[in-house]
Structure formats: structure tokens, C-alpha cells
Amino acid sequence: MKAxxxxxxxxxxxxLIVLAWIFNFPHSVISSYVGSHFLFTKxxxxxxxxxxxxxxxxxxxxxxxxxxxxxxACRNLVIPASTLLLLIFIAxxxxxxxxxxxxxxxxAFFAFQVFCHGALLVGGTYLARNNLVERQxxxxxxxxx
Length: 145
Description:
mainly alpha
């Protein structure tokens, strides 16, 4: 009974995260907020480095807080689960880039955003899951000794 309850809770957590990603909730709000505070991206020669830094900051703020909930909710399926979220992000980003892209720089920026999102989310959940498994294994070994 307890195991079923925990499974339902873990599935609910993951479904809430997927719904948030589908509605682009964390990304759109954080992107607007961070973008309004990055004023130096509009100043001449530092424009692209500022845009890339701003994009990395946005992806970090969006992805890092979701790493451990995904790792806990999807213990054995962290890579497929985080890849599903990455694909949802790619769909949102591709739609917005196709509407506004007018040069090759935008496609390079799109690739950078997808790389950052994927590395932080997929890589982060993989590392978090391995860390959780190692802790459980070491706790089990300590309990047996």
C-alpha cells in the first residue's frame, strides 16, 4: 500500500513538471524577468556575449531547481524523462525562433539554448540520480555493518 502511494506521488510530481514545461511556465516568466535586468546586452560590441550569458543564466535558473525533483520522481527513468522535457522545450523554442529568426545568428543562438537546456537538465538529472543511488547504497552498507 505504501509503495503504491509513493509511486502515485512520484508520478504526480513528474506530471506537474511536464505540464509546467508544456505551458512554458518557468521559462517564460524567468526569461522575461532576467531579460529586463540585462541592460548591457543592448550596448554595442558586447551584445552577443551578453545575450549568451543571459541565455545561460536563464537556462540555469529554469533547469537546476527541477533536477532533484525529476531525479526523485523518475528514479530509473531520469534520462527519458528529462529528454521528454528537453523535447518540449525544443518545440517551444523552435516555434518562437521560426517566428523571429532572420539570420544565421538566431539559429546558432537556438542551438546554444538547446545545448544549455539539455546539458543542465539531462546531465543534471543523471548526476543527481547517481548521487542519490550512491547515498542509498552507502546508507545500506552502513546499516548492514
